[in-house]
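Exercise 3.2. Students should predict the tertiary structure of the chain below and write it as structure tokens, then compare their answer with the key that follows.

Predict this chain's 3D structure.
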Amino acid sequence: MVRAINTQAFVAAWNNHSIPVKRIAAALGVTHQAVSDRAHRMGLPTRAHVRMLKHDPALLREMWLAGVSVRAIADHFGMSHPSCASTAVRKAKLPKRERGPSGRLNGGWIANLPIEKFWEQRLGLRMQEVAEQDKKAARPKDRLAA
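Answer key:
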């Protein structure tokens, strides 16, 4: 039997993401699809659009373009499977990985950059930027003779 629910209570439960849809459905005595349908008919945003990202889009882009493997990216961001990283890459509309000449070791895929090497390169670039800023700060300023 479906329990009647106050519209404000339903909206509050729907917008509280710590309450799973299945729990709302159990409280109402309906399926989770029925709860989602009711929310849709009420004009509420889907929960998929308000999910928190597990990754930093800028860092994901940087890692992907540098050539870090999908598995290493997934591990870094705490994703449950490498396919999650592939999906994030696809949604970010990043370019596909290219194939190189076929070889015995990599099956034709261009070799990936180890994540340790990525962090070393990134740290090196940051150190270079800081060194340039320090040089600029240490230069004597041109002063007008009075």
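Discussion points: The chain has two domains: 7-50, 58-97+111-136. The chain has a mean pLDDT of 83.
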